[in-house]
Amino acid sequence: MALATALVLAGCGHNRKLLEINYVSAPQVALRDQVAAVYTKVGLVKNGDRVEVLDRQRRFVKVRTSSGMEGWMEQRYLVSQRTYVLVEKLAEEHRNDPVQAAGTTRNDTNIHLEPARDSEHLYQLATGDKLSIVSRATTEKPPAPALESNSKTKTGEPKPVMEDWWLVRDGQGRTGWILVRMVDIDVPLEIAQYAEGERIQAFFILDSVQDGDKKVPEYLMLLSETKDGMPFDFNQIRVFTWNRRRHRYETAYRERNLEGVLPVTLGQEPFEKEGTLPTFTVRVRDSQGNVVQRKYKLNTPIVRRVLAPGEKPEKPARHHR
User: Fold this and answer.
1) What distance in Å separates the CA atoms of residue 318 and residue 271, rounded to the nearest whole number?
2) CATH superfamily of this structure's domain 94-186
3) Buried b (16+ CB within 10 A) or exposed e, 255-277
4) CA distances, 10 to each of 62, 71, 224 (Å)
């Protein structure tokens, strides 16, 4: 009886030791047997692992993994359960967002909960990871103290520096914000060479044509100016079709001075004698600043506007440089 009572009490004490649930935010962290200069590694935890926090000592916490392994690790490699829930919510909200481009990470980098350097993060991407890009945001970069005196306006206020962010999904469905400069857009070289110094924001395969024994894709490409902080996601669209006689890409359509807003959507629709054709719909701000949709159809090599019943062509707002 005494032994049974002792075991029950020990079990109650074990439960009371649980302080909270955290998640590992680093690629890999070693667990140590004690908080000391000399210690033994007792195990490893990895990015996204759920751990129970059992104790705290200075900047270290004692954790227990799902397998029951216990050890000490630095607090800075953990995020709260609240952050985990918000990260999962972000992924769910954007799970079905249309992909605007494929990309590859240039370096190891965190994906953030919000488009800001100081926002929470849970997951870290490795160099070369493949991503789906779904949206863009631009936010103010925190000023570097040493540069504040050199970046002031005439009124004496620090001049804000803007930077662009992509909302991305990786192959595991993990979703978050990453700096645009940390991602290379995976545009095929055959059309990337026609960017003419502009920044490629998105690209899509509209159709494909048969040329001999191979099928060649035809593309829609969205471009913007080569600097962060622009008030639009793109300001130019181009369509590249394949010339089967000359065996090369040619620009079938170009439109400039747009104030485009992602996302762009693709489709296919019947057009009487023309048959079923690929379509794409872009969103732009009109002269009053309202976001309106503009639909186009591709009947290779011709691209034309598709007006809804009663719709009249309207020029989008021009960006004044």
Assistant:
1) 31
2) SH3 Domains (2.30.30.40)
3) beebbbbbbbeeeeeeeeeeeeb
4) 18, 19, 64
SS3 321: coil
DSSP H or E segment with residue 14:
helix 2-16
Query: Are 52 and 63 a contacting pair, CB within 8 Å?
Result: yes
Sheet of 248-255, strands arranged across:
199-211, 214-224, 236-243, 248-255
Q: Record the pTM.
A: 0.85
Residues 6+ apart with CB under 8 A from 184: 103, 104, 105, 106
DSSP assignment, residue 126?
A: P
First to last CA, the chain: 85
Q: Return d(Cα 271, Cα 251) in angstroms, integer.
A: 23
The candidate with the shortest Cα–Cα distance to 46, out of 98, 117, 122, 115, is 122
Residue 71 identity (one-letter amino acid)? G
Q: Which residues contact 176 (CB under 8 A, 6 or more apart)?
A: 87, 90, 110, 111, 112, 113, 121, 122, 123, 167, 168
In whole angstroms, give the CA distance from residue 234 to residue 32: 50
Q: Give tens-digit pLDDT for 34-65.
A: 999 999 999 999 999 999 999 999 899 999 99
Give the start-to-end residue ranges of the domains of the chain: 2-80, 94-186, 187-321
Residues 6+ positions from 153 with CB-CB distance below 8 Å? 159
3-state secondary structure 73-91: EEHHHEEEHHHHHHHHHHH
Identity at 264, one-letter amino acid code? V
CATH architecture label of 2-80: Roll (2.30)
User: Phi, psi (5° rounding) for residue 98?
Assistant: -65, 140
**Which residue(s) pair with 202 in the sheet?**
222
The string of pLDDT tens digits covering residues 137-155 is 999 988 776 544 455 555 5
Output the CA–CA distances (angstroms, integers) from residue 28 to 47, 123, 315, in the order listed.
6, 11, 53
No. of H helices and E strands in the chain? 3, 22
